[in-house]
Amino acid sequence: MSKKAVILLSGGLDSSTCLAIAKKEGFSCYAISFDYGQRHRVELSAAKRVADTLGTQEHRIVQLSLGDLADSALTDLRLAVPETPSEGIPITYVPARNPIFLSIALSWAESLGARDIFLGANIVDYSGYPDCRPEFIAAFEKMANLATKAGIEGEHFHIHTPLMHLNKADIVKEGAALGIDYALTFSCYQANAAGQACGVCDSCRIRADGFKQAGIADPTVYFS
Amino acid sequence: MSKKAVILLSGGLDSSTCLAIAKKEGFSCYAISFDYGQRHRVELSAAKRVADTLGTQEHRIVQLSLGDLADSALTDLRLAVPETPSEGIPITYVPARNPIFLSIALSWAESLGARDIFLGANIVDYSGYPDCRPEFIAAFEKMANLATKAGIEGEHFHIHTPLMHLNKADIVKEGAALGIDYALTFSCYQANAAGQACGVCDSCRIRADGFKQAGIADPTVYFS
């Protein structure tokens, strides 16, 4: 029986590629997504489509009322999503999002008997989020192995970030080579109700550039 | 204006004492509780009573569908809560509970401008949970300061665990000296619907011993 892994799946380009890589590496995949008050909640439909199409053992959507707590343009509809590149950490930063998501994934992993967790974090074309950097991932992994029964019993939890040092074009090529239909995926921070992308937010821009530089047709449907 | 702190408040003896200590230290207190699928959900009423009585700036109850994911006697009604002391980590252990709760508290803290988080973790009379040990707290704090905007900008997040090295009797004495009415608090893992305690679970036994050894009358109402 193949080893189990938990994959954080937003339904975006990165996490979908990450799921395809975990499958290629032979893991039996358990996908987890979060309904946390994000304005782009339509991404959860993409996550479901991707999980169904690529194939997972289970796909869970965790309900978490984070929008009431976290100060971010991704959860507060009164704040505008930036439509031009900015310096530093953008207001789409959601405080401690990856610590929260990884901790919940860790809980499920320990319960399932999985010791491997995949996250599509990336520092090359990333948007300046501190909880996407390798220093954070290493510190989280260390904490996870001190926090859990399995960890202190010597069964090492491993946080895999196979996209960390790839640029977006390389991620697109990797996913395409693994057969992902990127039309299933969804990355926009402010899509409309029909699930069409804005084309101008950080996430859309980085994604569009990735397709362009990879020389692969961009299947995203834009409303603007 | 006094410094803000986020206090993890279950409504139990330890976290209530922790809130009283944070107030004594002059912090402006923001309490956070979790509705995570625990069988002893009645503790949330105690958390509310304690927050109201001791006084907090705000008290938030976060909804989190953890019960579907975590394998624990505290969230799975098919598993029995142990009624005699056991060796090692008990089945009331909820995988990665403190990493999850602290990460969510961290998100709120960063959003509020608080850099101090209080947790009533304790290793003396504790029930064998790995995520209550000082090694875990230190690793979490390190991770938190690499994960967040404020952390990487040099504003240090500090996880306070003022009860870590106290025994339960000392915690009871400290809280009593700070004026806590422990009748407001609630610790049982398997209370009945009226909020009466079982008197036999680990949490009840450690609590009752604490009152006994402190020489303070136990105000807990037991059903058995």
Q: Largest beta sheet of chain A, briefly?
A: 5 strands, parallel
How many separate domains make up the residues of chain A? 1
State the assembly state of the protein chains. homodimer
Give helix % range of chain A.
Answer: 25-40%
Identify the biggest protein-protein contact and residues per side.
A-B, 44 and 43 residues
Count of separate DSSP helical elements of chain A: 7
User: What is the CATH topology of chain A?
Assistant: Rossmann fold
CATH H-level name of chain A... which superfamily? Answer: HUPs
Compute the average pLDDT of chain A: 93
General shape of chain A: globular
H-E string of chain A: EHEHEHEHHEHH
Q: In CATH's first tier, which class of chain A applies?
A: Alpha Beta
What structural category characterises the helix and strand content of chain A?
alpha/beta
> Kindly, what is the distance between the CA atoms of the first and last residues of chain A, rounded to a whole number of angstroms?
47 Å
Beta strand % of chain A: 5-15%
Rg for CA atoms of chain A = 17 Å
Layout of helices and strands:
2 copies of one chain form a homodimer.
Chain A: E1 4-8, H1 13-24, E2 28-35, H2 43-54, E3 58-63, H3 97-112, E4 116-118, H4 134-147, H5 149-152, E5 158-160, H6 168-177, H7 202-214
Parallel strand pairs in A: 1-2, 1-4, 2-3, 4-5
Helix pairs in contact in A: 1-6, 6-7
